[in-house]
C-alpha cells in the first residue's frame, strides 16, 4: 500500500479546503486547529504565527505605512524607538545592520527579519511594548497616527459594514441612536465604553443612524474600534447585529475571520508541517485528529485515505451538511458576540 505524506495533503486543494472549513472555526466545546497543533507538537511561537501575522499583522502594516510616509527612516532611529519602549530583545534582532541603513531597504532584503519582529510586537502584552507603542514613537504627527489606524482597519471593519447595512437597508434605515443605545445599555450587552463614545460626539437619541454614522466619520471610527475588539465575555458587533434583527447570513458576510483568505490557520499549519516535517505521514495526521475527537475531520481524512477523493454519497453529504449547518447556526445565535481566549 502506498504511503501518503503531509505533502500529499497540501497538494490536494479540495482536501485542504474541507479541513480548513472543518477545523478553523473556534467552538466552546469542540476542539479545533489549535488543539491539533498541540497534538502535533508544533511550538507555541510558531502557532501564534498562524493566527497573528498571517491574519493581519499591524506591525507589517506599520512598516508598509512608514515606507511611503517616512521612506528615509533609518535603522538608528528604529533602534532608538525600540529602546524607548524597552524592547532590547528586538534591538538584538538588528545586530547585523548599520544605523545609517534605510529600514525599508533592510526589510525588503530580509523579509524574515520583519517576520520575527512583527511576531513579537503583535503578540506583546502589557507592560511589554507592542506595535502601538512603536507606532507612537515612529510617527510624530498625531494626525498621521490616526490615518494609519484608519488604514489598518479599513479592510477589516465589520462594524462599519454593519452600520452601512443598517443605514441603507429598508427596515433598518429609520433606526435611531436611541434604539442603538437601548441595546448597548441592556445588561446582556452593557457596553459603557460605546455609550461614552456616543456621548462624547454629542449625538441625540432622536438622530437617525444614517445621519450620524456616515462613512469615515470620527464617530464611526470610534465605535468601530470598540466593537471590533474581541475580548472574552464582552459582546461585540456580532451580538449587536443579532439583537438588531440582522439576519445571521447577512452579518456572517461582514466577518473577516469567516471570509478572509488570509484567515486559514489550518492550511498554514499543514503547509508548515510539509516544510518542516515532510516525512510526516497522513496516517500520523489522522492519529492526531482522532486524539482531538473531531470525527468530522477524521471522516474527511478517511475518505482521502480510502479513495483519494471526496465523492461521498449524495445522501450522506446532504445529511452531514444539514446537521453541521444547523449546529453552526444554533451556535452562532447562542454565542453571537462571543470570542474566546487562546487555547491553553
From TrEMBL:
PROSITE patterns for this protein: DEATH_DOMAIN (PS50017)
Coiled coil region boundaries: none
GO biological process: signal transduction
Origin superkingdom: Eukaryota
InterPro entries: DEATH-like_dom_sf, Death_dom, IGFLR1
Span of domain Death: 33-98, 236-305
Short name of any one Pfam family annotated for the protein: Death
Listed GO CC annotations: plasma membrane
Name of the featured protein: Death domain-containing protein
Species: Desmophyllum pertusum
